[in-house]
Amino acid sequence: MPTNTLSPPLLDVHDLCVSFTSRGQVIPIVENLSFSIGEQEILGLVGESGSGKSVTAMALMGLIDAPGVHVSGSARFKGQDLLGLSGKQMRALRGREIAMIFQDPMTAFTPVYTIGWQIDEQLRAHQNLSRKQARTRTVELLGEMGVPDPANTANRYPHQLSGGLRQRAMIAMALSCNPSLLIADEPTTALDVTVQAQILDLMRRLRTTYGSSVLLITHDMGVVAETCDSTLVLYSGRAAETGATQDLFAHPQHPYTAALLASIPPMNGPRPDRLPAIPGTPPQPLERPAGCAFAPRCTYTHASCLPAPPPAFCTVGQAHKVACVLPGEGNPLPKRAYTSATPVL
Fold first, then answer.
1. Residue 180 domain-assigned?
2. How many CB atoms lie within 10 A of CB 335?
3. Alpha-carbon torsion, ordered 173, 62, 201, 322, to 10 deg
4. Could you tell me the end-to-end alpha-carbon distance of the chain, in angstroms, rounded to an integer?
5. Bridge partner residues of 231 (DSSP)
6. Which Gene Ontology molecular-function terms are recorded (predicted)?
């Protein structure tokens, strides 16, 4: 858990909006997203594919620079608004204070340079190190990430490494300058269960070893339960629910959160014949309903869900908020609906 919950948040995002222009139309991808990450905190950002998780991370990193993209709101990191920084200022911050583990390390690494050369480059770009000093640090980092024979591995190209080793090398690069904030975008995708557990264990140790905070992007609720202090659930580019992970798993207040938890195989009790599934698919950004975006797929939809604007966050407990009509005020969702045993990897 965060060491000091009374200190100002390391990252404070308020009303983040990301939109794209296509054929003369403005298409909202992320709408009015607000959250904060404290020092040495791990925040899970969860939701189905297309919820806007990776777009949020790319916007915070200043990596969305295509024509027709508009990013608004504020994202204050150590009191400095990331969205107002110039390209030069952001390049100085990126990699040194804020680092990112990309979803696919095979495409994130440059294929024509060795793993060691690429980590060396980042070290020398942000720290006053010679080539020899940078390589020594690179080998140390790879060893700390559990890479066997790190000196020889540093001389290999990305395609010569397994998926698990590439992911460890990507984490080593991200941690090379001891960043205050690490953004991990699906760091366990396509990895087998054993390697996935090792990667998650490495991430849990980041805050004790490096004092880092982590924004963990995933669609795996089991990973969230094992790793994250708090959780933010996204649906169709909008925040659906947020709160402490333990509270959110025990008392889901949004039907979408409850349905995600219901789709996890139970660890105890009788095995169901078929896991519950959420009917339909998330709406396209231009086809979002006027009110709650989840209404067309929700079994608890009623008249108050449909009018515009979308429901605002309501507080249902200490630091637990939900963008839905509260139980007892028209929403028939029981407080413990769909609750199952916390999944363990």
1. yes
2. 14
3. 180
4. 19
5. 44, 243
6. ATP binding; ATP hydrolysis activity
Residues 108 and 139 sit within 8 Å (Cβ to Cβ): no
Amino acid, res. 128: N
Q: Number of helices and strands (H, E) in the chain?
A: 12, 12
Name the maximum alpha-carbon separation found in the chain. Answer: 67
For 288-331, write each residue's pLDDT tens digit. Answer: 888 899 999 988 888 888 888 888 888 887 789 999 875 434 44
Does residue 345 surpass a pLDDT of 80?
A: no
Torsion of CA 317, 322, 327, 331, to 10 degrees: 180
The pTM of the full predicted model, rounded to 2 decimals, is 0.87
pLDDT 10s digits, 95-106:
899 999 888 888
3-state SS class at 199: helix
Is 4 domain-assigned?
A: no
Domain containing residue 183: CATH number = 3.40.50.300
Sheet holding 11-22, edge to edge: 25-37, 11-22, 69-77, 80-81
